[in-house]
Amino acid sequence: MSQEQSNKTDDKRKDAWDKADIVIKGIGIAVISGAITLYGIWANNSREREAEINRKAQLFVQTMSKREASESDLRAKMFEQLMNHYFEKKDEEAQLLFLKLIALNFQEYLNVKPLFEHLDRKLTSSLHRMELRRVAKDTIGRQIVELEGSGGEVWEEPGWLEKGKVTPAGPLQLELLGVSEDRIRIRTLPEDEDGFEVTYFDMPYVDNSTINAMRYSVVLAEARPKENKARIKIIIFPENYLSPRDRPRMDCLITDLLKNQEAPAPVKK
Questions:
Q1: For 109, which DSSP code?
Q2: Could you please report the per-residue DSSP string of 132-195?
Q3: Does the N terminus or the C terminus of the chain have fewer Cβ atoms within 10 A?
Q4: What per-residue confidence (pLDDT) applies to 85?
Q5: Cα–chain-centroid distance for residue 88?
Q6: Strand 214-224 to strand 153-156: parallel, antiparallel, or no bridges (unpaired)?
Q7: SS3 category, 112
Q8: Phi-psi map region of 232: left, alpha, beta (phi>0 left; psi -120 to 50 alpha)
Q9: Helices 92-106 and 126-149: crossing angle, nearest 10°?
Q10: Are 239 and 151 spatial neighbours (Cβ–Cβ below 8 Å)?
Q11: How far, in Å, CA of 145 to CA of 38, rounded?
Q12: How many of the other CB atoms lie within 10 Å of CB of 96?
């Protein structure tokens, strides 16, 4: 092969490599440009999704605040009217009715025990007094159901607890110190020396205590002073307990925020 032919062959090879280099560089530039474009679209969608989540969260909080303010105003007016009617009425049946409405609608917002005790002292009819205790029992029952539904536990003494005796089982050791017509005195062992009273009107939401970081309430189911014995229930509150007026609002807020975060935002075309 002559020198001239060899040079032509080398030139052809060089041209081929130059063309291949141009093609490869072109493809590389196209790939990089495409990757940058896709990243830009992804980053933009991520920012839009985050902005949408924040917007929904802010809107939800504002809506909840307005709704709570409206509900608070309505409840305040309703409470004022019920209380006015309760104290204005002299008829025992009417007072029982209004107290029942107050307990039904505001048991988580205030301690209704003084109202029950106040009316119990005023009632002259034994039938009305029985009805008052039934209303209190229903109110306590609703609170127990709410606490159970939130993860709490209810333990009921299987039999009668006699004076001087200690609960044989259950989450706490309770000793019955005394029994009267409408209340008992008990103490928790071994720390409590003086004990505390439990009446038919003690409500778990308000009348509760703690021992070893465990919140509990004792409910009087029935007292028999002549026989010096009583039936009780022990309610163990769920851990990290929140009052009913706070828990629904916070649960709703958390649930909605989680839904907003999990739901993918639509990709704009």
A1: T
A2: HHHHHHHHHHHHHHHHHHTT-EEEE-SSPEETT-B-SSSSS-EEEEEE-SSEEEEEETTT-SS-
A3: C
A4: 81
A5: 36
A6: unpaired
A7: coil
A8: beta
A9: 10
A10: yes
A11: 54
A12: 21
pLDDT score for 19: 56
One-letter amino acid for residue 8 of the chain = K
The pLDDT value given to residue 1: 52
| Per-residue confidence (pLDDT) for residue 110, from 0 to 100 | 78
Residue 242 — φ and ψ, nearest 5°?
A: -120, 145
**Hey, what are 85's tokens?**
């009617």
Residue with tokens 């103490």: 187
- Write the single-letter amino acid at 255: T
- Report how far Cα 200 is from the mean position of its chain's Cα atoms: 26
User: Would you say how long the chain is, in residues?
Assistant: 269
Determine the pLDDT at residue 269: 46
Give the integer Cα–Cα distance in Å for 264 and 48. 11
Structure tokens at 245: 């007026």
In the chain (269 residues long), the average pLDDT of successive 10-residue segments reads 52 56 60 69 73 70 66 74 80 89 82 89 90 94 90 86 82 88 89 86 90 88 93 89 56 51 50
Phi, psi at residue 25, to the nearest 5°? Answer: -65, -40
d(CA 128, CA 130): 5
